Amino acid sequence: MSSINLIESFQEFKEAENIDRPTLMKVLEDVFKTLLRKKYGSDENFDVIVNDQTGDLEIFRRREIVEDDDVEDENAQIPYSQAVKIEPDYSVGEEVYEEMDVLDFGRRAILAAKQTLAARIGDLKKSSLMKKYADRIGEIINGEVYQIWKKELLLLDEDGNELVLPKSEQIPADFFKKGETVRAVVKKVEMRSNNPVIILSRTHESFLEKLLELEVPEIMDGLITVKKVVREPGERAKVAVESFDDRIDPVGACVGMKGSRIHGIVRELKNENIDVINFTNNINLMIQRVLTPAKINRMDVNNDKHHADVFLEPDQVSLAIGKKGVNIKLAQEMTGYTIDVYRDVAEEDFGEFDIDLDEFSDEIDSWVIDEFKKVGYDTALSILGPSVEELARRTDLEEETIRDVQRILREEFERDEESAE
User: Are 291 and 308 in contact (CB under 8 A)?
Assistant: First the structure.
């Protein structure tokens, strides 16, 4: 029978990655049974056979031999006079198997079948790709940069599948060139315009967690567990770890000898500072650990309100807060507590009394006061001490706004001094 280029077509289809052979055979069979139903109204007495090695397709029609005058259904019955032309030994009541020539369906029907076949295989590939990556969410994969756009990178995996790394999922310091290999974690898989899109991430907490698994065998072996990871991508991260073996120091194992294990991860994350801390259910101790590198003098913890007031030496306040408030923000995410930091210094040490910043709410906008308090500047003297540049660096306030606030505070102290005289 004519192959109608089906073999060449089949060779393309059977190359389809991740599609198992039985499924592919079933699709081919279904496509041609649909063709048969359109031409003959039914496919019940037809057998479609596909050779999974060569791609050859054969269609056989089964018909019962009846007397010439008893034919009621030409699809299911064949006159005796016709049957003996195929095989002289046939008799009434037997079944005749005839091989169909695919060209009998017509070129238009054949073309439609091939297009349907291509569409079905395309849907199978999409479904297979969706399942493959849905099962790999949270795993690290490597991709080669194929296209660079303003808002995202297009990568190719080892099978040539397209992966997307949005700008929002890249570390701020990331810079990639075409052809470069990128490591990222599979964040999610979604459908866009009926096509599966695999979204990668280098900023997600799971990326750091998986990097630790690769570098620290004790985590992979289950001797150490990562309890929680919080990140400000490219700036700082905090990782709480716990050991199930008292003989293993989880922090030491993660950091490695002279930082050997953690250094590779830091480089991958573009010099992101990583604080590895021992997990504990003691919230006071946990707060003390997550505020590292700052040293705490004392704290008041309200477990009902999930709030903690932390008191530190003046030179430790900025360490606890961190650059742009990153350290204290991550500490709050790690513990689930709202943490306010205060300078633990007696008033007489200043040589003059101090004034709470809220006392100036009639002269300073409340949002400006909140911005200062957010990073630990809650009194007049705490704002008058640092330079304008330092305050601007630690807050999101303009230098002009900071100068106005310092002027208001300074004038208040001057008025108090005049009153004292």
Answer: no
| Three-class DSSP category at 34 | helix
How many whole angstroms separate alpha carbon 65 and alpha carbon 82? 9
CATH superfamily, with its number, for domain 136-203: Nucleic acid-binding proteins (2.40.50.140)
Candidate CATH numbers 3.30.420.10, 3.30.70.1150, 3.30.1480.10, 3.30.420.270; the one for domain 6-131: 3.30.1480.10
Dist. CA 143–CA 184, nearest whole Å: 8
Given a contact cutoff of 8 angstroms between Cβ atoms, the answer to whether 244 and 227 are in contact is no
Integer-rounded Cα radius of gyration of the chain: 37
CATH architecture of 346-420: Orthogonal Bundle (1.10)
Cis check for the bond before 172: say yes or no (omega within 30 of 0): no
pLDDT along the chain (421 residues), means of 10: 46 54 72 78 76 68 80 77 80 80 72 76 81 91 94 91 94 93 94 89 95 93 94 95 90 90 93 94 93 89 92 85 89 93 60 74 88 81 79 83 88 67 52
What pLDDT is stored for residue 395 in this prediction?
81
Cα 128 to the center of its chain, rounded Å = 19
Q: Report the C-alpha dihedral over residues 312, 316, 320, 321, rounded to 10 degrees.
A: 110
Q: Which one-letter DSSP state was computed for residue 170? A: S
Give the residue range(s) of CATH 2.40.50.140 domains in the chain: 136-203
Break the chain down into helix, strand, coil percent, rounded to 5: 45, 25, 30
Q: Are strands 338-343 and 307-312 parallel, antiparallel or unpaired?
A: parallel
Q: Identify the pLDDT of residue 4.
A: 44
**d(C-alpha 94, C-alpha 97), whole Å:** 10
In what helix (H) or strand (E) does residue 187 lie, and over which residues does it extend?
Answer: strand 181-192
pLDDT at 127: 82
Is the pTM higher than 0.90? The answer reads: no
